[in-house]
């Protein structure tokens, strides 16, 4: 079950800054089968200088979600950005929100 949850989390776009709309992947927010799993939610700041640039990794996600970044001038096109993390974490600044901000 942990591998399934980790795979789902790795495919989730989990952005935080400038978020416009959060879309949870499961109706009850918590992924099926993960209510009783004892996982500690952590955010690890990996940047040597977080005041200038964040490089955060999120681990222990039991409420997987996507964040919608709407384009300033929408043209009907869309991009899905799925930050990686080798099935263990979501690297959401460098591989996620930074890219979404540039694309929108």
What does this structure look like?
- This protein has 104 residues and is α+β, with helices and mostly antiparallel strands.
- About 14% of the residues have low confidence.
- The protein has one domain.
- The protein contains two helices and five strands.
Largest sheet: 3 strands, antiparallel
Tell me the number of structural domains: 1
Mean pLDDT metric: 77
Strand content: 15-25%
Q: Any idea what the shape is?
A: flat
Secondary-structure class: alpha+beta
Q: Return Rg in Å.
A: 14 Å
Query: What order do the SSEs take from the amino end to the carboxyl end, as H and E?
Result: HEEEEEH
Ordered list of secondary-structure elements with their pairings:
Blueprint (H helix, E strand, L loop, with lengths): L1 H10 L9 E4 L17 E4 L10 E4 L5 E4 L21 E2 L1 H11 L1
Antiparallel strand pairs: 1-4, 2-3, 3-5
Condensed summary:
The protein is of the alpha+beta class and 104 residues long.
């Amino acid at each position: 079950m942990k591998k399934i949850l980790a795979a789902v989390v790795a495919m989730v776009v989990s952005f935080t800054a400038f978020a416009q709309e959060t879309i949870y992947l499961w109706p009850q927010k918590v992924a099926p089968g993960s209510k009783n799993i004892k996982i500690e939610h952590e955010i690890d700041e990996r940047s040597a200088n977080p005041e200038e640039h964040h490089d955060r990794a999120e681990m222990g996600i039991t409420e997987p979600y996507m964040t919608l970044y709407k384009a300033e001038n929408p043209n009907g096109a869309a991009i899905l950005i799925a930050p990686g993390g080798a099935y263990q974490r979501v690297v959401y600044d460098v591989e996620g929100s930074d890219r979404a901000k540039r694309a929108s």
